[in-house]
Amino acid sequence: MQTVTRLDPLRNALDALRIDGTLALVPTMGALHEGHLTLVREARQRAAHVIVSIFVNPRQFGANEDLDAYPRQLARDQALLEAEGVSLLWAPEPQAMYPDGYATNISVLGVSDGLCGAARPGHFDGVATVVCKLFNQVQPDLALFGEKDWQQLAVIRRMACDLDLNRPHASAILGVPTVREADGLAMSSRNAYLTAGQRAEAAALPHAMKAAIAAMLGGQSVGQAMAELVARLTASGFSSVDYAEVRDPVSLAPVDDPRQVPARLFVAARIGGTRLIDNQPIC
Q: Which domains are delineated in the chain?
């Protein structure tokens, strides 16, 4: 596996890899876990070469968020990717992504509204901007993202469609189902922030969501189901719930009756100083 940190060597390496066939990109911020490796394995099934990017993007962190504390484990991540057969790791420094004088921002309206977009102003501008840069730098035939960050996936697809991107085309931006721990908690790099006690309490999140989905499918109103979900999480040790909402899986518009149309349940909740997100289909 090659590790590249500058643009010119990246382009040379990509030109050599393209001789063998298609390229798949898995963008990450590092601190890799089984969820990321699942994306890599899926990419290997779909392309001749897998490129993984590791870049902790400062533009998607708010003023009071955990940019400095975000785990950086490059040597460990390199070893994991090497073992998975990744062809190239693109690990730029911030100056390579945002050189002096950088002045461009991408904002995707609509799907970025509400949910994490409301709780983290500017977050999805940072996501869209860095992912567009990664797409332009690597020009992959396809790109893979985890469905745990469903709103992020919707933003990226909308951005690719609106900007007429061809590598990858919006239809080649693939979502991979959320990978979960044995107790149901969605895998996340931020799970490492949890104490042992908080980690045990965090398992209440997916279970409370499943209970809310069952209640709505049984005829309970969305409002009542969300109120009971919040109460369950609070009783289980969560300090607050940023949102608990039912939305259309494509447009992310609110859904009043998930028994009538496709819908997903989206939740973000805080336990200690850690913010956890999850989403599940209502079916």
A: 2-176 (3.40.50.620), 189-281 (3.30.1300.10)
